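Give me structure tokens for this 718-residue protein.
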Amino acid sequence: MSLSTHAVSLLALSLLLPASPVTAKDMAPLAAAQSSDLPESNPFAHPSSLPFGAPPFDEIKDGDFQAAIDSAMRQHDAEIAAIAGNSQPPTFDNTIAAMERAGQTLAVVSAIFDNLVSANTNTQLDKVNAIEAPRLQAHFDKIRLNSRLFGRVRALYETRSQLGLDKKQNFLLDRVYHDFVRAGASLAPKDQQKLLRINEKITRLSTAYRNRLMAASNAAAVIVDDKTQLDGLSDSDIAQAAEAAKARKLPGRYLLVLSNTTQQPLLATLKNRALRQKLLEASESRGSLPGRHDLRDMIITLAQLRAERARLSGFPSYVAFKLDEQMAKTPGAARKLLAAIVPTATAMARHEANEIQQVIDAEDGHFALTAADWPFYAAKVQKMKYGVDDAETRQYFELNRVLIDGVFFAANQLYGLTFKERTDIPVYHPDVKVFEVFDVDGSHLALFYADYFARPNKNGGAWCSTFNRAGGLFGTRPIIVNVANLTKPAVGEPALLSYDDVITLFHEFGHALHEMMSIQYYPSENGFRVPTDVIEFPSQFNEHWALYPSVLANYAKHNRTGAPMPQELIEKIKQARNYGTGYATTEIVSAALLDLEWHSLPAKATKQQITAFEAEALKKNGVDLPEVPPRYKTAYFQHIWAGGYEGNYYSYLWGEILDDDAFEWFTAHGGLTRENGQRFRDMMLAPGYSADPMTLYRAFRGGEPTADALRRQRGLED
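Here you go.
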């Protein structure tokens, strides 16, 4: 999961403006700019009559979006012009605060659109996205490069010690000023024009990349003619493959669709070695073969454009530019984290490879272990060592029970939240469910949409995002969606999850909790705005409760009999959960290092050849294990080319340091209790981005975080 493993985010663009309170007096000059030229029949023209302002999906038509976004941008332009042209001297209220109210319509329209493009797209939505994404980029560039507006912001920043602002306002003003500077506001006009052209090209390419990658992944799905080749797959997996083939007008055949990662889940049980090799080859070659799905030139150009963008801003590389606003601050800090993990992780991976090879040899396999064999034989080793069988554990992990009696139950025990399904609120797809979330005092806290099943028109992976721009200023509560790509069961069959799927549900809901609980008066201070290398902390922290005894006992029940999971099986899962840590750690470190290498290229670097560059990068960093490919190879690494993680994919490991360290605090102080949950909520979740995240963490933990807990949790100490 991630917060942003989807397309270039129109929502992210719409939230670039700072958020602060404004009074009626402050907004008086904007009154004339508040009208919209949307037609009366358009669902975006007026506030929704649905509960809590939920999107009226039953009224929204795909054709509405282009007109709605264009109209909202014009409205936003007028609002910004009124702020920049205000004849009164700049104050926090008439400048910083006024910018918050501006753009509210655009934020809501683009949030809804972005979610649909990511989770339920079609040809028309993709076409609108291709048109509007660069327009939005240019729109926000124009705001950040507005010299009169920046002059007001700079005047406030330079006199901030005399303004009598509180800590939150000072922190916000500092961020706003530096956001303008990073966006090029202090550059010479000639360089600003260069920057505008670069930003437009990057946005167009990123949008095109997302569309082409989805097409490439769909085209790379493996067609199987003979059912006997699918030996080892579950009945549900086979039924799903048959349905996927039928949907592609391939009746009587089977289609093995690809997940977004290098390794494919089906490889763990698929017995046919030749088909395993074919499936992994299809995965690894996505986007890197000649033809209409080739992504290589796009990627090379994106890397060059980002490097040039960083040079204009005075940075030696894009990763230096990117990390300047992250918790890590420098590329050296990120590399130090990864370099410290590599030796132990790769040593463990080699040890795991030796164990697997012994099993292959014992079965007279007469072949050397390859990446395509790893999941299948690793599952055998795991079962031999710990007695864990994925087919058996799935019987105790039924989707609805995991969500309601697991994920929601843990949130209730920690934070006092309760949940009620709402069937009266429209959804954008029949698979989506909506829940109202109530706070500990029974008041309305949020709406939560759950969209868990895979579709051909949905981006790969899992993520969390919002449908609105919540905050005390607007009197709005968050409307949040969790999206995943679980295999949909055959009609009448339960949706049974792997243990990894269970972790995904807890992870993504951790993001949702962060947004629900961090609603500030200033919306830009909410949890979704924190630096990327902090944003994974609450989500990964929430994973820990999946195996917590009281939580597990509440949801891990046999899907047919309702019998609780036997304690023996629970112990096996706990013992086995760190099996394969060498592989899992190496594949994610490899991907993070690939990201750093691509975005460390200087602006004047020669044009790269992707395969050679990737091989050299892995070798140079000591992670070139052929049996352990990166979690994402360059061509289909959507996180960094169209997902917002460019230059900081290391964030997952950075966040894990924090979450494991925090969980050890919980363990030392009584574990899952309301008291502990409230403390974590008050000190870590609720502040959002209203203060420096590391300062908040030190106050919660009583000291600096260390990687010791991460090594213990991953079993790396052994």
